[in-house]
Amino acid sequence: MRWRTGRRSRNIEDRRGMRTVRKKGLLKGGGVGAIVIALVAMYFGVDPSMLLRGMQGGPSTSTTQVSNKPLSAAEKQLTEFVSVVLADTEDTWNQLFKQMGQQYQEPKLVLFSGAVQSACGFAQAAMGPFYCPGDQKMYIDLSFYNDLKHRHNAPGDFAQAYVIAHEVGHHIQTLLGISQKVHKAKRGLSKTEANTLSVRQELQADCLAGVWANHADRARNVIEEGDVEEALNAATAIGDDRLQQQSQGRIVPESFTHGSSEQRVRWFRKGLQQGQVDSCNTFAAKRL
């Protein structure tokens, strides 16, 4: 990905070196059960703490400890990279919202180490990147990219950019009122029906990530040979079917919350090829 000459975003909130620790509160039926729930929620757009909150017993608090450990050269470069990617999403969505007659509200990207407190609750790095609509911020521990590369065999800077673009997709859904409608529609539904809505919401965020890639490349020529394959490989790696097969040895489609590998790849590709927000209406699609 051609990124080094790109603009840096001013919407980076760096909390690395500030370690947030939960002091009180226990998970009822914690252990393996809590880990399984966290794994289900850990990838792309859902704060796992919102699922775990219902299992908590007693009040909880958190404290922040500050460390003066300097960043390595690799960490500094990765910080520059995510700042450029975020700035590029800002440029793209500012323009697209202007075309829609609306004003884009730029989200903050919070970099943290280990654990973090958000408006959606407490989250640990192992739970993966997430977007919190409560404060309209995205949260990521950049060590996640090592996991994406080594655990899921999805290396490459454009794969990393896809992660950020997907979370920005959830911000777009919040600004357009889609997330609120989905949350309201889930009330009274069965777990399977609610999961289906979640899948449609996640696949739309994948498609919106593709829309960003389309416009970013046309406007600023950011995509290099092999970049699209990197993003598609990342989408494949974090499909529900792939993750379930790895974690439990079997696939349970009715429990999907993000979509299969094939679905995630197809919707990202659709956004990339068409470059239109209207093409990402997964809620009206007969075939996901």
- Derived from helix and strand composition plus strand pairing, the structural class reads alpha/beta
Number of structural domains: 1
Portion of residues within helices? 40-55%
Order of helices and strands: EEEHHEEHEEEEEHHHHHHH
State mean pLDDT (0 to 100 scale). Answer: 85
Explain what the structure shows.
By secondary structure, this protein is α/β, with parallel strands linked by helices. The chain has one domain (12-280). The chain has helices at residues 32-41, 48-52, 73-99, 144-150, 157-175, 178-185, 191-220, 227-237, 240-248, 261-274; strands at 12-14, 18-22, 26-27, 56-57, 62-66, 108-111, 115-118, 121-124, 130-132, 137-140. The strands form four sheets. The chain has a four-stranded mixed β-sheet, covered by helices on one side. It has a two-stranded antiparallel ribbon with strand order 2-5. Strand 7 and strand 8 form a beta hairpin. Helix 3 crosses helix 5 (157-175), helix 5 packs across helix 8 and helix 8 (227-237) packs antiparallel against helix 10. The longest helix has 30 residues, at 191-220. The two termini are 29 Å apart. The model is unreliable at 25-59 (pLDDT under 50).
